[in-house]
Amino acid sequence: MKPTTAELEQEALLKNFLDGLEPLEAEKTRTALRGVSSLPTVEEEYLESFPAPSTDAFDVDRPEWKLAEELNLGLEEATRVLEWHQVALIREIEWAKAEQLNLIVSFLCKPTGNLRAVVRALALATGLAELNGTHSQAEVARELGVTRALVSYYVTTWADLLKINVFKFRKGSSSRETYREAAKTSWAKRKA
Asked: Is residue 138 located within the same domain as residue 165?
């Protein structure tokens, strides 16, 4: 690879400076270095000797190719199966969203003693409450003038109804059984 004139000028300037023949002046250095981004290295010259990769070279992991290989199908059949799967997946997601909205609206329409607690528990269960600055179920209970147990009951009901895991503002699902047993034991002792 032949050096360009700009590279030759740059090389001469550096050689004269290193030999002590010529001091580096800011303006002269800026003009000499403006046209050349950097001097080529041996590694760059080695890499430039290879042909540019084709665009198809990196296209080996397309989903339809993987599917064709896994199911022993032709490429056309695998493409049709993949398209069908994507359409079915979108349809299932839309159905699940509609089902959850149906559950929410039907639960909110049920007669309840405290609709505000039900709605705030929905916000707690879905994680929206922290956007409004809520820090705990106890805080919500104090604001609404109800017990924390009622708010916790509604949050748990929403989580079960919507099949979601609630990580904020409550204990883990595994502790529910422990508390249920403790409540049963306590109730049985009071009854006896």
From this structure: yes
